[in-house]
Predict the 3D structure of the following.
Amino acid sequence: MRSHPSTRLFIIAIDGPSGAGKGTVARAVAASLGYRHVDTGAMYRALAWKAVHERLKLEDESALATLARRAVIEVSDGVVRVDGHDVKEAIRTAEIDKAAAAVARQPGVREVLIRQQREIGVGGGVVMEGRDIGTVVFPSADLKIYLDASPEERARRRATDPSHASGTGNAAVQDVASALAERDRSDSTRKASPLALAPDAVLIDTTGVPVDAVVQRVLALAARRR
């Protein structure tokens, strides 16, 4: 981690819906600052993969919470493992998209994973992305960013994203848009840690904006807080 000894290490929270650019921006900001990048969404996906693998019922909160407590999930700087299994690619499928949304709705699961996320980021020097980082996980984060984009832009990005199984470039954008709309509904209406804009977050609309420009804006905001 590249940081001067006298420089306080920040917790930077980046929230927003799927396709808004969280992952790309968070990785770039973390790399520029020499911070750790943590994709909390991958934690829920990894747990969902494990639940599907063990054939658990995705509405069984008790069983899923128990699984969350015993599973060893490693998510940092591009690594995604659960109980030693590399699931980085396996969790980026339509099946796991749906499973992760179901798992993330369970309060018992969120309680366990939020505790783990706080342990990961408590010392600072982290760029953590998700849907409830600035509102629930780290409500006192040094910098809170909420990325958003038009539904059309988000669907186009996801349809052509090679990190997803559907990202072949030939995916029907309308199908992806429908899936994203359903995920948005699930995330924003769940009782536990719903997707929401924190009052003190900086809202950045990434529609039509180059990634580099968004990254530079976030870095400038971070610099002003030092």
